[in-house]
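Lecture 7 notes: from sequence to structure.
We start with the chain below.
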Amino acid sequence: MIINLNSFLKKSLSNLKLFTLFFIVCSSLYLIYNIFNINKLHQKYITTLENVYSGARRFGSFYNNTGTEDLKKGQYLFNGVSVVVNTPTQAKILSTGINNYVYK
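Predicted structure tokens for the same chain:
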């Protein structure tokens, strides 16, 4: 019984060492990869923010320059744009602006 326990501990220890070595090597390679690619990630992040800001600025003029209409509860279709109204409200009709933005 003692011989089997000793051999089990030796095998377990060698497997643990191998796993630890593999884990350290993989972690180190992943860290090095991230260090070299951080500038790419940063540039993609900045580009995405600029695109979102640009789209919001272009669409903002459509939102500010459109009229409102009293809508009761229901579903409406304005120039191919569907609007769902849950409670009666005054809503801006943005279909013209959305169509201009999409087709530019």
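Points to note: The chain is about 70% helix and 15% strand. The radius of gyration is 30 Å.
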